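Quarterly update from the structural biology core.
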Amino acid sequence: MKKNMIIAAAVVAAGLGATGITGALAASQNGSKDTAEMQALMSAKLSVADAINAAEAAQPGKVAEVQFDLEKGVPSFEVSILAADGTEHDFMVDANTGKIQKLAANEDQNGEDQDGDENGENDEGDNG
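Predicted structure, tokenized:
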């Protein structure tokens, strides 16, 4: 009986250890991405204020959100502007050149719609 409990405890401990290692590896990979993004932000030629000014010049309104991202090696700010009529306009501002690009309505830089589902699918998996 005691031998079975020791074996069971060892199996549980091994399972927990594997889970911890997997989590640590995932955190390490995310950490290196975060480090690369921080380095890109620190070396960017434009500041957050510059990106906001560029987006507001393209679309007057109130800034709802600003996010920095390193997409395919290109550092950029995604700026969401809420227009006076209540519509949201999203812009990508290149953090080095200042080049601004308007994103499609209800789509962010990852190709996801505003509720976070890819390909515009709703909760049931249907498009539309």
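Confidence is low (pLDDT under 50) at residues 8-26, 107-122.
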